[in-house]
Amino acid sequence: MFIASGDVVPSFKGFTLIMPAVSVGNVGQLAVDLLISTLNMARVGHFHTDCLIPMAGNNPYATCAEEAGQLSTSAEVYCHSDSKLAVLQIRTPIIQTKVRSFRKLMVSWIKSSGFLRSVLLSSSQAYHRDDQQLHGTPLRYLLTPSLQKEEAPRVEELGWREMERISAFPGVSDSEQRLYIPGGGVTKALYTDCCTEGISMAVVLIFCSEGDNIPDAFALVNHLNDWLHLLEKPVRVRKCGESES
Amino acid sequence: MATFFGEVVSVYSRAVEEDEYDDMTNENEEDEQIRREIEEKRAVDVHWLSQTDGGSVPCSDLIIAVGLNATGFVSAYALSSGGWTAVAWISLWNERSPGSGRANTAPGPGEPSCVLYQQKHSPSVLICQCSCYVAEDQLFQWTEKVLSCVQTRGLTVTVLSDCSVAEYKTSDYLSESSVPFLRSLRTSAHTGPVASPALEQPNISTGLAAAVLSHCQVQRIPAVLYQCYSDVLQPDSLSMQTYRAAVSAVLKLDPSPSADVLQKITRGGELQSNLYT
Protein backbone atom coordinates (compact mmCIF):
# COMPACT_ATOMS: atom_id res chain seq x y z
CA MET A 1 0.00 0.00 0.00
CA PHE A 2 1.07 3.58 -0.54
CA ILE A 3 2.70 5.28 2.46
CA ALA A 4 3.55 8.95 2.10
CA SER A 5 7.09 10.08 2.96
CA GLY A 6 6.02 13.40 4.39
CA ASP A 7 3.23 14.32 6.75
CA VAL A 8 0.92 15.45 3.98
CA VAL A 9 -0.59 12.67 1.87
CA PRO A 10 -0.41 13.79 -1.76
CA SER A 11 -3.53 13.71 -3.89
CA PHE A 12 -3.25 11.93 -7.24
CA LYS A 13 -6.70 12.80 -8.47
CA GLY A 14 -6.56 13.59 -12.17
CA PHE A 15 -2.91 12.57 -12.43
CA THR A 16 -1.33 10.30 -15.02
CA LEU A 17 0.38 7.28 -13.51
CA ILE A 18 3.35 5.68 -15.22
CA MET A 19 4.59 2.34 -13.93
CA PRO A 20 6.83 -0.44 -15.22
CA ALA A 21 6.28 -4.15 -15.56
CA VAL A 22 9.25 -6.28 -14.52
CA SER A 23 9.87 -7.70 -17.97
CA VAL A 24 12.56 -8.86 -20.39
CA GLY A 25 15.58 -6.59 -20.32
CA ASN A 26 14.00 -4.62 -17.46
CA VAL A 27 13.21 -2.00 -20.09
CA GLY A 28 10.13 -0.63 -18.32
CA GLN A 29 12.12 -0.08 -15.14
CA LEU A 30 15.03 1.54 -17.00
CA ALA A 31 12.56 3.81 -18.79
CA VAL A 32 11.02 4.82 -15.47
CA ASP A 33 14.48 5.55 -14.03
CA LEU A 34 15.09 7.76 -17.05
CA LEU A 35 11.83 9.66 -16.51
CA ILE A 36 12.44 10.18 -12.81
CA SER A 37 15.98 11.44 -13.25
CA THR A 38 15.30 13.59 -16.34
CA LEU A 39 12.25 15.27 -14.85
CA ASN A 40 14.00 15.49 -11.48
CA MET A 41 10.96 14.05 -9.77
CA ALA A 42 10.62 14.13 -6.01
CA ARG A 43 9.84 11.02 -4.05
CA VAL A 44 6.49 11.31 -2.32
CA GLY A 45 6.13 7.87 -0.79
CA HIS A 46 6.83 4.19 -0.68
CA PHE A 47 4.77 1.28 -1.93
CA HIS A 48 5.03 -1.06 1.03
CA THR A 49 3.86 -4.55 0.22
CA ASP A 50 4.60 -8.20 0.92
CA CYS A 51 4.27 -8.94 -2.80
CA LEU A 52 7.73 -7.73 -3.79
CA ILE A 53 11.16 -9.08 -2.85
CA PRO A 54 12.60 -6.58 -0.37
CA MET A 55 15.54 -4.40 -1.29
CA ALA A 56 17.26 -1.34 0.15
CA GLY A 57 19.94 0.90 -1.21
CA ASN A 58 21.02 4.51 -1.34
CA ASN A 59 19.44 7.08 -3.63
CA PRO A 60 20.12 6.06 -7.24
CA TYR A 61 19.30 9.54 -8.59
CA ALA A 62 21.56 11.55 -6.29
CA THR A 63 23.32 14.45 -7.95
CA CYS A 64 25.07 15.69 -4.80
CA ALA A 65 26.39 14.33 -1.52
CA GLU A 66 23.40 15.49 0.54
CA GLU A 67 20.99 13.52 -1.61
CA ALA A 68 23.15 10.39 -1.70
CA GLY A 69 22.19 9.21 1.78
CA GLN A 70 18.44 8.92 1.13
CA LEU A 71 17.29 5.32 1.47
CA SER A 72 15.46 3.74 -1.47
CA THR A 73 13.24 0.69 -1.17
CA SER A 74 11.82 -1.83 -3.62
CA ALA A 75 8.89 0.28 -4.79
CA GLU A 76 8.55 4.03 -4.56
CA VAL A 77 6.27 6.75 -5.91
CA TYR A 78 7.61 9.95 -7.44
CA CYS A 79 5.65 13.01 -8.40
CA HIS A 80 5.85 15.96 -10.77
CA SER A 81 2.90 18.13 -9.81
CA ASP A 82 3.30 20.63 -12.64
CA SER A 83 2.76 17.92 -15.22
CA LYS A 84 0.22 16.11 -13.02
CA LEU A 85 2.43 13.08 -13.30
CA ALA A 86 3.01 10.30 -10.79
CA VAL A 87 5.52 7.55 -11.39
CA LEU A 88 5.76 4.25 -9.54
CA GLN A 89 9.17 2.59 -9.76
CA ILE A 90 9.37 -1.12 -9.00
CA ARG A 91 12.90 -2.35 -8.43
CA THR A 92 12.49 -6.02 -7.56
CA PRO A 93 10.60 -9.01 -8.94
CA ILE A 94 7.15 -9.95 -7.69
CA ILE A 95 7.23 -12.95 -5.35
CA GLN A 96 5.87 -15.81 -7.44
CA THR A 97 3.10 -16.83 -5.06
CA LYS A 98 1.95 -13.23 -4.70
CA VAL A 99 1.40 -12.25 -8.33
CA ARG A 100 -2.37 -12.30 -8.07
CA SER A 101 -2.31 -10.27 -4.86
CA PHE A 102 -0.02 -7.77 -6.52
CA ARG A 103 -2.37 -7.31 -9.44
CA LYS A 104 -5.31 -6.80 -7.07
CA LEU A 105 -3.26 -4.32 -5.07
CA MET A 106 -2.36 -2.28 -8.15
CA VAL A 107 -5.91 -2.23 -9.47
CA SER A 108 -7.29 -1.14 -6.11
CA TRP A 109 -4.62 1.56 -5.65
CA ILE A 110 -5.19 2.96 -9.14
CA LYS A 111 -8.93 3.11 -8.49
CA SER A 112 -8.71 4.62 -5.01
CA SER A 113 -6.15 7.25 -6.03
CA GLY A 114 -8.35 8.60 -8.80
CA PHE A 115 -5.72 8.53 -11.55
CA LEU A 116 -7.04 9.94 -14.80
CA ARG A 117 -5.11 7.31 -16.74
CA SER A 118 -2.33 4.80 -16.20
CA VAL A 119 0.52 3.81 -18.47
CA LEU A 120 2.29 0.47 -18.12
CA LEU A 121 5.76 0.43 -19.66
CA SER A 122 6.83 -3.04 -20.65
CA SER A 123 8.73 -5.24 -23.07
CA SER A 124 8.33 -8.55 -24.82
CA GLN A 125 10.73 -11.19 -26.09
CA ALA A 126 11.97 -10.21 -29.55
CA TYR A 127 12.61 -13.80 -30.57
CA HIS A 128 8.91 -14.60 -30.28
CA ARG A 129 7.91 -12.22 -33.06
CA ASP A 130 6.13 -13.71 -36.00
CA ASP A 131 6.84 -12.85 -39.63
CA GLN A 132 4.61 -9.77 -39.56
CA GLN A 133 6.08 -8.41 -36.35
CA LEU A 134 9.65 -8.68 -37.64
CA HIS A 135 8.99 -5.77 -39.99
CA GLY A 136 8.87 -2.14 -38.98
CA THR A 137 8.84 -0.67 -35.52
CA PRO A 138 9.46 -2.85 -32.44
CA LEU A 139 7.13 -0.63 -30.39
CA ARG A 140 3.55 -1.61 -29.64
CA TYR A 141 0.63 -0.32 -27.63
CA LEU A 142 -2.60 -1.54 -26.04
CA LEU A 143 -5.51 0.51 -24.73
CA THR A 144 -8.19 -0.66 -22.34
CA PRO A 145 -11.75 -0.02 -23.53
CA SER A 146 -12.10 2.93 -21.11
CA LEU A 147 -9.21 4.71 -22.75
CA GLN A 148 -10.03 3.70 -26.35
CA LYS A 149 -12.54 6.44 -27.03
CA GLU A 150 -10.26 9.21 -25.83
CA GLU A 151 -6.91 8.10 -27.11
CA ALA A 152 -7.49 5.81 -30.08
CA PRO A 153 -7.66 8.73 -32.58
CA ARG A 154 -4.49 10.21 -31.12
CA VAL A 155 -2.44 6.99 -31.29
CA GLU A 156 -3.69 6.41 -34.82
CA GLU A 157 -2.57 9.88 -35.75
CA LEU A 158 0.85 9.06 -34.30
CA GLY A 159 1.00 5.94 -36.44
CA TRP A 160 1.37 3.60 -33.48
CA ARG A 161 0.99 -0.15 -33.96
CA GLU A 162 -1.36 -2.07 -31.74
CA MET A 163 -0.01 -5.30 -30.22
CA GLU A 164 -1.21 -8.06 -32.50
CA ARG A 165 -3.36 -10.91 -31.28
CA ILE A 166 -2.10 -14.34 -32.26
CA SER A 167 -3.84 -17.62 -32.94
CA ALA A 168 -4.34 -19.78 -29.90
CA PHE A 169 -3.40 -22.68 -32.20
CA PRO A 170 -0.96 -21.41 -34.84
CA GLY A 171 -1.52 -22.98 -38.21
CA VAL A 172 -5.15 -23.80 -37.44
CA SER A 173 -7.44 -21.37 -39.20
CA ASP A 174 -10.45 -20.04 -37.31
CA SER A 175 -8.76 -20.62 -33.97
CA GLU A 176 -9.30 -18.10 -31.22
CA GLN A 177 -7.19 -14.94 -31.37
CA ARG A 178 -5.57 -14.07 -28.09
CA LEU A 179 -3.09 -11.67 -26.59
CA TYR A 180 0.38 -13.09 -26.06
CA ILE A 181 3.15 -11.07 -24.43
CA PRO A 182 6.05 -13.46 -23.74
CA GLY A 183 8.59 -12.04 -21.33
CA GLY A 184 6.18 -9.31 -20.34
CA GLY A 185 5.85 -10.48 -16.77
CA VAL A 186 2.57 -9.29 -15.33
CA THR A 187 1.70 -7.08 -18.36
CA LYS A 188 -0.97 -9.20 -19.98
CA ALA A 189 -2.66 -10.13 -16.71
CA LEU A 190 -2.68 -6.58 -15.38
CA TYR A 191 -3.96 -5.24 -18.70
CA THR A 192 -6.74 -7.81 -18.68
CA ASP A 193 -7.63 -6.93 -15.08
CA CYS A 194 -7.82 -3.24 -16.01
CA CYS A 195 -10.08 -4.02 -18.97
CA THR A 196 -12.41 -5.90 -16.64
CA GLU A 197 -12.34 -3.23 -13.95
CA GLY A 198 -12.95 -0.34 -16.31
CA ILE A 199 -9.60 1.31 -15.63
CA SER A 200 -8.11 3.63 -18.24
CA MET A 201 -4.78 2.03 -18.96
CA ALA A 202 -2.37 2.11 -21.86
CA VAL A 203 0.39 -0.45 -22.28
CA VAL A 204 3.43 0.74 -24.23
CA LEU A 205 5.95 -1.96 -24.93
CA ILE A 206 8.99 -2.73 -27.02
CA PHE A 207 10.26 -6.00 -28.45
CA CYS A 208 13.76 -6.64 -27.16
CA SER A 209 16.22 -9.24 -25.89
CA GLU A 210 18.37 -9.37 -22.78
CA GLY A 211 21.60 -7.43 -23.13
CA ASP A 212 22.40 -3.74 -23.05
CA ASN A 213 18.85 -2.45 -22.88
CA ILE A 214 19.62 1.22 -22.42
CA PRO A 215 18.85 2.07 -26.08
CA ASP A 216 15.53 0.22 -25.71
CA ALA A 217 14.67 2.34 -22.68
CA PHE A 218 15.45 5.53 -24.58
CA ALA A 219 13.34 4.35 -27.54
CA LEU A 220 10.43 3.57 -25.22
CA VAL A 221 10.59 6.92 -23.42
CA ASN A 222 10.84 8.92 -26.65
CA HIS A 223 7.91 6.98 -28.09
CA LEU A 224 5.88 7.71 -24.95
CA ASN A 225 6.89 11.33 -25.12
CA ASP A 226 5.43 11.64 -28.62
CA TRP A 227 2.08 10.94 -27.01
CA LEU A 228 2.30 12.51 -23.55
CA HIS A 229 4.71 15.40 -24.26
CA LEU A 230 6.48 15.12 -20.92
CA LEU A 231 9.77 16.42 -22.27
CA GLU A 232 10.47 19.22 -24.71
CA LYS A 233 13.01 17.35 -26.77
CA PRO A 234 13.83 13.68 -27.15
CA VAL A 235 16.30 12.14 -24.70
CA ARG A 236 19.38 10.58 -26.17
CA VAL A 237 22.36 8.66 -24.99
CA ARG A 238 25.21 11.04 -24.32
CA LYS A 239 28.53 9.88 -25.74
CA CYS A 240 31.71 9.99 -23.63
CA GLY A 241 33.18 13.46 -23.47
CA GLU A 242 30.00 15.23 -24.54
CA SER A 243 28.87 17.93 -22.19
CA GLU A 244 25.25 18.55 -21.32
CA SER A 245 23.68 20.88 -23.89
CA MET B 1 20.32 -6.65 -18.77
CA ALA B 2 21.78 -3.25 -18.11
CA THR B 3 21.82 -1.46 -14.80
CA PHE B 4 21.00 2.21 -14.58
CA PHE B 5 24.68 3.03 -14.73
CA GLY B 6 25.24 1.21 -17.97
CA GLU B 7 27.10 -1.90 -16.97
CA VAL B 8 25.94 -4.94 -18.83
CA VAL B 9 25.15 -7.87 -16.60
CA SER B 10 24.44 -11.23 -18.11
CA VAL B 11 21.56 -12.53 -16.07
CA TYR B 12 18.48 -14.48 -17.01
CA SER B 13 15.34 -12.47 -17.44
CA ARG B 14 13.49 -11.94 -14.21
CA ALA B 15 10.18 -11.66 -16.02
CA VAL B 16 8.16 -14.76 -15.35
CA GLU B 17 6.67 -16.41 -18.40
CA GLU B 18 3.01 -15.56 -18.70
CA ASP B 19 1.91 -19.20 -19.06
CA GLU B 20 2.35 -19.63 -15.35
CA TYR B 21 -0.27 -16.99 -14.70
CA ASP B 22 -2.78 -18.76 -16.91
CA ASP B 23 -2.47 -21.83 -14.67
CA MET B 24 -3.17 -19.82 -11.57
CA THR B 25 -6.36 -18.34 -12.88
CA ASN B 26 -7.75 -21.83 -13.46
CA GLU B 27 -7.55 -22.80 -9.82
CA ASN B 28 -10.29 -24.86 -8.28
CA GLU B 29 -11.35 -25.32 -4.68
CA GLU B 30 -8.81 -28.07 -4.04
CA ASP B 31 -5.99 -25.86 -5.31
CA GLU B 32 -7.24 -23.06 -3.08
CA GLN B 33 -7.16 -25.35 -0.08
CA ILE B 34 -3.66 -26.59 -0.84
CA ARG B 35 -2.53 -23.02 -1.22
CA ARG B 36 -4.07 -22.11 2.14
CA GLU B 37 -2.39 -25.07 3.83
CA ILE B 38 0.98 -24.13 2.38
CA GLU B 39 0.48 -20.57 3.59
CA GLU B 40 -0.29 -21.82 7.08
CA LYS B 41 2.72 -24.09 7.09
CA ARG B 42 4.95 -21.23 6.02
CA ALA B 43 3.56 -18.84 8.62
CA VAL B 44 5.99 -17.10 10.96
CA ASP B 45 5.09 -17.20 14.67
CA VAL B 46 6.56 -15.63 17.78
CA HIS B 47 6.67 -17.74 20.94
CA TRP B 48 7.21 -15.91 24.22
CA LEU B 49 9.21 -17.82 26.80
CA SER B 50 8.52 -15.75 29.88
CA GLN B 51 5.89 -13.11 29.26
CA THR B 52 2.35 -14.16 30.00
CA ASP B 53 0.51 -11.28 28.34
CA GLY B 54 2.36 -11.62 25.00
CA GLY B 55 2.36 -7.89 24.44
CA SER B 56 5.28 -5.88 23.17
CA VAL B 57 8.23 -5.05 25.41
CA PRO B 58 9.56 -1.53 25.89
CA CYS B 59 12.74 -1.21 23.85
CA SER B 60 15.28 1.53 23.21
CA ASP B 61 17.71 -0.52 21.13
CA LEU B 62 17.05 -3.60 19.05
CA ILE B 63 20.02 -5.29 17.42
CA ILE B 64 19.23 -7.83 14.71
CA ALA B 65 22.03 -10.14 13.58
CA VAL B 66 21.69 -12.04 10.32
CA GLY B 67 24.37 -14.22 8.79
CA LEU B 68 27.11 -16.38 10.24
CA ASN B 69 29.58 -13.62 11.07
CA ALA B 70 26.93 -11.35 12.54
CA THR B 71 25.36 -14.07 14.68
CA GLY B 72 28.81 -15.36 15.62
CA PHE B 73 29.79 -11.85 16.67
CA VAL B 74 26.82 -11.36 18.98
CA SER B 75 27.34 -14.84 20.45
CA ALA B 76 31.03 -14.35 21.18
CA TYR B 77 31.15 -10.66 22.10
CA ALA B 78 27.80 -10.12 23.83
CA LEU B 79 25.70 -13.17 24.66
CA SER B 80 28.49 -15.34 26.03
CA SER B 81 29.03 -12.88 28.87
CA GLY B 82 25.92 -14.33 30.49
CA GLY B 83 24.07 -11.05 30.99
CA TRP B 84 21.23 -11.97 28.60
CA THR B 85 17.96 -13.93 28.87
CA ALA B 86 16.15 -15.50 25.96
CA VAL B 87 12.65 -14.02 26.01
CA ALA B 88 11.15 -15.27 22.75
CA TRP B 89 11.85 -17.41 19.73
CA ILE B 90 10.48 -17.25 16.22
CA SER B 91 9.33 -20.43 14.49
CA LEU B 92 9.08 -20.81 10.74
CA TRP B 93 9.25 -23.54 8.17
CA ASN B 94 10.63 -23.51 4.64
CA GLU B 95 12.57 -25.92 2.47
CA ARG B 96 15.92 -24.72 3.78
CA SER B 97 14.80 -24.32 7.39
CA PRO B 98 12.67 -27.35 8.14
CA GLY B 99 13.04 -26.70 11.88
CA SER B 100 13.73 -29.26 14.53
CA GLY B 101 10.55 -31.18 13.81
CA ARG B 102 9.46 -30.62 17.39
CA ALA B 103 6.57 -28.24 17.05
CA ASN B 104 6.26 -25.50 19.64
CA THR B 105 9.53 -26.35 21.33
CA ALA B 106 12.33 -23.83 21.45
CA PRO B 107 15.33 -24.74 19.28
CA GLY B 108 18.22 -26.39 21.05
CA PRO B 109 21.75 -24.99 21.17
CA GLY B 110 23.56 -25.37 17.87
CA GLU B 111 20.33 -25.64 15.87
CA PRO B 112 19.52 -22.91 13.33
CA SER B 113 17.18 -20.58 15.15
CA CYS B 114 15.76 -17.14 15.57
CA VAL B 115 15.87 -16.01 19.21
CA LEU B 116 15.18 -12.73 20.97
CA TYR B 117 17.40 -11.96 23.97
CA GLN B 118 16.91 -9.26 26.59
CA GLN B 119 19.78 -7.70 28.52
CA LYS B 120 19.38 -8.40 32.26
CA HIS B 121 20.76 -5.18 33.67
CA SER B 122 19.26 -3.00 30.94
CA PRO B 123 16.00 -4.63 29.81
CA SER B 124 15.30 -2.07 27.07
CA VAL B 125 18.19 -3.47 25.00
CA LEU B 126 17.32 -6.54 22.95
CA ILE B 127 19.23 -8.72 20.51
CA CYS B 128 17.56 -10.81 17.83
CA GLN B 129 19.91 -13.48 16.60
CA CYS B 130 18.71 -15.07 13.38
CA SER B 131 20.71 -18.06 12.18
CA CYS B 132 18.00 -19.82 10.18
CA TYR B 133 17.13 -19.10 6.58
CA VAL B 134 14.05 -16.93 6.08
CA ALA B 135 12.55 -17.43 2.60
CA GLU B 136 11.61 -14.55 0.30
CA ASP B 137 7.91 -14.97 0.88
CA GLN B 138 8.39 -15.00 4.67
CA LEU B 139 10.57 -11.89 5.00
CA PHE B 140 7.70 -9.41 5.24
CA GLN B 141 5.82 -11.44 7.82
CA TRP B 142 8.99 -12.10 9.85
CA THR B 143 9.75 -8.40 9.99
CA GLU B 144 6.24 -7.39 11.00
CA LYS B 145 6.03 -10.08 13.69
CA VAL B 146 9.47 -9.44 15.19
CA LEU B 147 9.12 -5.67 15.21
CA SER B 148 5.71 -5.94 16.81
CA CYS B 149 7.43 -7.67 19.75
CA VAL B 150 8.94 -4.34 20.74
CA GLN B 151 7.43 -0.94 21.36
CA THR B 152 8.57 1.48 18.70
CA ARG B 153 8.48 4.66 20.74
CA GLY B 154 12.07 5.82 21.20
CA LEU B 155 13.33 2.72 19.40
CA THR B 156 16.50 2.52 17.33
CA VAL B 157 17.15 -0.59 15.28
CA THR B 158 20.62 -1.76 14.30
CA VAL B 159 20.93 -4.56 11.77
CA LEU B 160 24.14 -6.52 11.33
CA SER B 161 24.29 -8.49 8.13
CA ASP B 162 26.91 -10.46 6.22
CA CYS B 163 27.64 -10.13 2.55
CA SER B 164 30.23 -11.56 0.22
CA VAL B 165 32.77 -9.07 -1.13
CA ALA B 166 32.29 -10.75 -4.53
CA GLU B 167 28.97 -8.88 -4.67
CA TYR B 168 30.52 -5.50 -3.91
CA LYS B 169 30.64 -3.32 -6.99
CA THR B 170 33.19 -0.55 -7.13
CA SER B 171 35.10 1.28 -9.81
CA ASP B 172 38.24 1.29 -7.63
CA TYR B 173 40.45 -1.69 -7.06
CA LEU B 174 39.87 -3.25 -3.64
CA SER B 175 43.15 -4.02 -1.96
CA GLU B 176 43.45 -7.16 0.14
CA SER B 177 43.98 -5.20 3.33
CA SER B 178 40.67 -3.40 3.08
CA VAL B 179 38.60 -6.60 3.42
CA PRO B 180 36.58 -7.25 5.61
CA PHE B 181 34.89 -3.86 5.81
CA LEU B 182 31.58 -2.33 6.83
CA ARG B 183 29.17 -0.26 4.84
CA SER B 184 26.01 1.29 6.22
CA LEU B 185 22.50 2.17 5.09
CA ARG B 186 20.10 4.11 7.25
CA THR B 187 16.50 5.23 7.32
CA SER B 188 15.51 8.89 6.97
CA ALA B 189 14.55 8.97 10.65
CA HIS B 190 18.05 7.99 11.74
CA THR B 191 20.07 11.14 12.33
CA GLY B 192 22.70 9.94 14.80
CA PRO B 193 26.31 9.11 13.95
CA VAL B 194 27.11 6.00 11.92
CA ALA B 195 30.20 3.93 12.38
CA SER B 196 31.04 3.30 8.74
CA PRO B 197 30.85 4.89 5.30
CA ALA B 198 27.53 4.70 3.47
CA LEU B 199 26.91 1.91 0.97
CA GLU B 200 27.71 3.36 -2.41
CA GLN B 201 25.52 2.98 -5.48
CA PRO B 202 24.94 0.61 -7.25
CA ASN B 203 25.33 -1.72 -4.28
CA ILE B 204 22.17 -2.80 -2.52
CA SER B 205 21.01 -4.84 0.42
CA THR B 206 18.58 -7.73 0.04
CA GLY B 207 17.00 -10.38 2.22
CA LEU B 208 16.19 -9.97 5.87
CA ALA B 209 18.29 -6.85 6.35
CA ALA B 210 16.51 -5.10 3.48
CA ALA B 211 13.10 -6.19 4.76
CA VAL B 212 13.82 -4.76 8.22
CA LEU B 213 15.23 -1.53 6.83
CA SER B 214 12.27 -1.05 4.46
CA HIS B 215 9.82 -1.61 7.31
CA CYS B 216 11.64 0.89 9.52
CA GLN B 217 11.79 3.42 6.69
CA VAL B 218 8.03 3.41 6.11
CA GLN B 219 7.22 3.28 9.83
CA ARG B 220 9.70 6.15 10.44
CA ILE B 221 11.77 4.15 12.94
CA PRO B 222 15.43 5.21 13.15
CA ALA B 223 17.37 2.23 11.86
CA VAL B 224 20.84 1.58 10.54
CA LEU B 225 22.15 -1.47 8.71
CA TYR B 226 25.80 -2.44 8.86
CA GLN B 227 26.72 -4.77 6.06
CA CYS B 228 30.05 -6.59 6.53
CA TYR B 229 31.73 -7.53 3.28
CA SER B 230 34.00 -10.50 3.73
CA ASP B 231 36.03 -12.60 1.32
CA VAL B 232 35.91 -15.74 3.45
CA LEU B 233 33.07 -18.19 2.95
CA GLN B 234 33.05 -19.53 6.51
CA PRO B 235 32.56 -17.41 9.63
CA ASP B 236 35.90 -15.96 10.74
CA SER B 237 36.97 -13.97 13.77
CA LEU B 238 38.34 -11.05 11.76
CA SER B 239 35.00 -10.45 10.04
CA MET B 240 33.20 -10.80 13.35
CA GLN B 241 35.43 -8.21 14.95
CA THR B 242 34.52 -5.73 12.23
CA TYR B 243 31.07 -5.41 13.79
CA ARG B 244 32.47 -4.01 17.04
CA ALA B 245 32.45 -0.46 15.75
CA ALA B 246 28.80 -0.80 14.80
CA VAL B 247 27.44 -1.60 18.26
CA SER B 248 30.05 -0.38 20.76
CA ALA B 249 27.89 2.66 21.51
CA VAL B 250 24.91 0.49 22.40
CA LEU B 251 26.36 -2.69 23.87
CA LYS B 252 29.08 -3.32 26.38
CA LEU B 253 31.17 -5.85 24.53
CA ASP B 254 33.51 -8.49 25.81
CA PRO B 255 36.91 -6.99 24.90
CA SER B 256 38.48 -10.37 24.19
CA PRO B 257 36.20 -13.35 24.00
CA SER B 258 37.70 -16.69 24.92
CA ALA B 259 39.44 -18.69 22.24
CA ASP B 260 37.14 -21.63 22.98
CA VAL B 261 34.03 -19.63 22.22
CA LEU B 262 35.49 -18.26 18.99
CA GLN B 263 36.74 -21.65 17.89
CA LYS B 264 33.34 -23.26 18.41
CA ILE B 265 31.68 -20.60 16.30
CA THR B 266 34.19 -20.55 13.46
CA ARG B 267 34.54 -24.30 13.29
CA GLY B 268 30.82 -24.74 12.75
CA GLY B 269 31.34 -24.29 9.03
CA GLU B 270 33.90 -27.05 8.60
CA LEU B 271 33.06 -30.07 6.51
CA GLN B 272 31.73 -32.86 8.64
CA SER B 273 33.23 -35.59 6.54
CA ASN B 274 35.68 -35.81 3.73
CA LEU B 275 35.91 -38.67 1.33
CA TYR B 276 39.68 -38.53 1.31
CA THR B 277 40.37 -38.73 5.04
TrEMBL record, chain A:
Pfam families: PAC2. InterPro entries: Proteasome_assmbl_chaperone_2, Proteasome_assmbl_chp_2_euk, PSMG2_sf. It is found in: Nucleus. Keywords: Chaperone, Nucleus. GO terms for cellular component: cytosol; nucleus. One of its GO terms (biological process) is proteasome assembly. Belongs to the PSMG2 family. Chaperone protein which promotes assembly of the 20S proteasome as part of a heterodimer with PSMG1. Forms a heterodimer with PSMG1. This is Proteasome assembly chaperone 2. It comes from Cyprinus carpio carpio. The lineage of its organism: Eukaryota, Metazoa, Chordata, Craniata, Vertebrata.
UniProtKB/TrEMBL annotation, chain B:
Residues 14-41 form a coiled coil. GO terms for biological process: proteasome core complex assembly. The keyword Ion transport does not apply. Pfam families: PAC1. InterPro entries: Proteasome_assmbl_chp_1. GO terms for cellular component: endoplasmic reticulum; proteasome complex. It comes from the Eukaryota. The keyword Coiled coil applies. Keywords: Chaperone, Coiled coil, Proteasome. GO terms for molecular function: proteasome binding. Belongs to the PSMG1 family. This is Proteasome assembly chaperone 1. The gene is psmg1.
